[in-house]
């Protein structure tokens, strides 16, 4: 558990936060200048708050009242900057081993990190000779080898393209699942954060204005504006029921229950196994609504549900549908009126299998 009570003076406004973050991954989201990176700096010891406390578990890192300010090197916090910040004169192996604890009290071994992050073929290369995604993986590995109590990731995807992002995202998830290290991830890209976690901390003008589950935050009118006007994304935890390599289809079910969903296997490089838990993503405007199930159509995913909420979003309506798991569907106000859709309406959600992306 990370507990913050921070007042950090800034040029335009003060960063003022009082929050507790549980174990797992929490996405820190908000516009530029909201104070996201300043919060990480205060936690890591790169900035000294004017008042308050910072605690990781039972360990107090900062306490203004008692004049306690633990130095950066003694906080046992891993910090991965957006550009990686590797030592250019060292090869990948030396960069990794730089993070190892000298007392041998390792949370994870060098061999585990190399295997987990797929760095074995890069160990002899200089950091200037590897790609952006490989540098970020090396920086993650170096932080892991320091056996941190907490891992801070500051815009870890901004310096890499979409292909490299898809490489880094699953590594972060695997790190948390394997080593149970609490992770805070700062990003201005909402889909990237949702591929890591449904738990978000929303920041604006130096304050936390919302903290909790993504779907619950969407319902709050005083914070929903932070999600912008672009299409929202559904992030759904699902279980693999069956795979059909010959047809390229994988059959999924939400949380092991409810209705089946079909996806195209080629969306992912991973070979799925029955019973495996995966996360799938679909844009809210890639889903159509129908009053009845449609026959003789090529759309294979038709899920029956009930409208549990309708949120006004600029010129469109955001329908929250319970299909055994929450599903966001964006439609026009004209469509809502024409179809007489309201809270409580039974509805069918239609989307193609190829419209689904997978965290692979």
Describe this structure in words.
- α2 (92-98) packs parallel to α4.
- A hairpin with a 2-residue loop joins β4 and β5.
- The protein is 20% helix and 35% strand.
- The protein is built from eight helices and 21 strands.
- The chain folds into two domains: 2-227, 3-Layer(aba) Sandwich (Rossmann fold), CATH 3.40.50.300; 233-358, RNA polymerase II/Efflux pump adaptor protein, barrel-sandwich hybrid domain (OB fold (Dihydrolipoamide Acetyltransferase, E2P)), CATH 2.40.50.100.
CATH class identity of the largest domain: Alpha Beta
The CATH fourth-level homologous superfamily of the largest domain: P-loop containing nucleotide triphosphate hydrolases
Q: Kindly state the mean pLDDT as a whole number?
A: 85
* β-sheet strand percentage: 35-45%
What is the level-2 CATH architecture name of the largest domain?
3-Layer(aba) Sandwich
Tell me the number of helical segments per DSSP (H or I, 4 or more residues long): 8
Radius of gyration: 22 Å
Order of helices and strands: EEEHEEEEHHHEHEHEEHEEEEEEEEHEE
Largest sheet: 6 strands, mixed
Proportion in helices: 10-25%
Secondary-structure-derived class: alpha+beta
Give, in spatial order, the strands making up the sheet with the most strands. Answer: 7-8-9-3-10-11
User: Shape, please?
Assistant: globular
What is the total domain count? 2
Counting copies of identical and different chains, the oligomeric state is single chain
CATH-defined topology of the largest domain: Rossmann fold
How many extended strands? 21
- CA-to-CA gap between the ends? 28 Å
Low-confidence stretches: none
């Amino acid at each position: 558990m990370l507990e913050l009570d921070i007042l950090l003076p800034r040029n335009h406004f003060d960063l003022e936060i009082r929050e507790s973050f549980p174990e797992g991954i929490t996405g820190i989201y908000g516009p530029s200048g909201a104070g996201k990176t300043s919060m990480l700096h205060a936690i890591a010891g790169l900035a000294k708050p004017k008042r308050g406390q910072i605690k990781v578990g039972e360990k107090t890192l900062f306490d203004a009242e008692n004049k306690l300010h633990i130095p950066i090197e003694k906080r046992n916090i891993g910090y991965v900057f957006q550009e990686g910040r590797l030592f250019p004169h060292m090869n990948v192996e030396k960069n990794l081993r730089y993070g190892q604890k000298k007392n041998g009290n390792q949370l994870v071994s060098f061999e585990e990190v190399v295997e987990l992050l797929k760095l074995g073929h890069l160990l002899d290369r200089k950091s200037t000779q590897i790609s952006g995604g490989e540098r970020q993986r090396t920086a993650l590995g170096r932080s892991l080898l320091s056996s941190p109590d907490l891992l801070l990731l500051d815009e870890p995807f901004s310096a890499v393209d979409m292909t490299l992002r898809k490489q880094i995202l699953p590594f972060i998830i695997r790190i948390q699942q394997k080593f149970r290290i609490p992770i805070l991830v700062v990003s201005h890209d909402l889909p990237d954060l949702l591929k890591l976690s449904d738990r978000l901390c929303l920041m604006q003008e130096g304050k936390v204005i919302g903290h909790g589950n993504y779907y619950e935050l969407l319902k709050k009118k005083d914070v929903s504006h932070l999600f912008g006007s672009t299409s929202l994304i559904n992030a759904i935890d699902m279980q693999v029921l069956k795979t059909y390599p010959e047809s390229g289809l994988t059959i999924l079910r939400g949380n092991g229950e409810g209705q089946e969903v079909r996806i195209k296997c080629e969306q992912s490089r991973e070979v799925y196994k029955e019973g495996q838990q995966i996360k799938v993503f679909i844009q809210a405007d890639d889903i159509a609504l129908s009053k009845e199930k449609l026959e003789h159509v090529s759309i294979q995913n038709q899920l029956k549900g009930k409208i549990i909420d309708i949120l006004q979003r600029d010129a469109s309506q955001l329908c929250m549908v319970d299909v055994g798991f929450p599903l966001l569907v964006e439609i026009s106000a004209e469509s809502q009126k024409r179809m007489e859709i309201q809270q409580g309406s039974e509805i069918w959600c239609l989307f193609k299998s190829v419209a689904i992306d997978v965290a692979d």
